[in-house]
Amino acid sequence: MDLHAFRSALPDRFGGDFYSADLPDDAFEKIVADVDGMSTPHSLTLLNEAVRHLGPDEYYLEVGTYRGRSLIGAMLGHEHDRFVAIENFREFGFDPEIAQATVFDTLEKWGVRDRVRFLRGEAFTVLPRGVTPGPVGVYFYDGAHSRLAQYLGLAVAEEWLADEALVIVDDATWPQVASSTQSYIDAHPGYELLHDFRAEHDFDPLWCNGVKVYAWRRPQNWQRPDGFDVSWRRLAHIYGQEPVMNFAWRTLPKFPRVSAILKKAYLHGGTSVPEGRLDAE
Q1: Are the C-beta atoms of residues 213 and 168 closer than 8 Å to each other?
Q2: pLDDT tens string 144-153
Q3: What is the pTM of this model?
């Protein structure tokens, strides 16, 4: 990943203002209008520019594809096939088979289906086995945002990152996402915050719930992040939190009061943008 070129080129994609409502390229507006999802034209522009600076053998990897909007935005105008997406379709109460078919139809409509390796499964069991033939130059995490999952979302991917890569975290203005991400980065060297695109309110039309962009450079004495801080979280998520939430997403729409209690326990605060976009770029 050419981090220097990315940093130099990114402002031009936004006309010099990351918070301008008018982007020079309206192609991403069309994706947003056509594909269900929460990614904004601003975040799609960011992902697309990141892909532009991949090395020749590097891959774009995203966790949390939902309906395919972010994936299509990242791929737009790039003709190679170095794209991998992971989604389990367990959240939001969707039938996984129907949801996957819908995504595939959308990718086909936009002419990109044959250039994506799409994996349906739990990221924290799939990723440790490796999912790309080459190093990951751009990693976009938009999977589960519980405190456990957010921490793991960085840990399980780090082994597969290129020696220099971009790590992009969605919903990053949510306090629990910000705090969990920072906790991981404080314990694992190699990350440099390049941009903190903060949302002004929930589902801000510019940056939705916020996006953070990190440069990753592998430290000289790097070790795979499989210490106790990662292992206990992985076990707790896979064998505790995930089965409970999988059951909840499938059954609780029938029981709104119980649903509210479990959602609070799962998210345990911090999934709303604080008032005002403080210290925004």
Answers
A1: yes
A2: 888 889 999 9
A3: 0.89
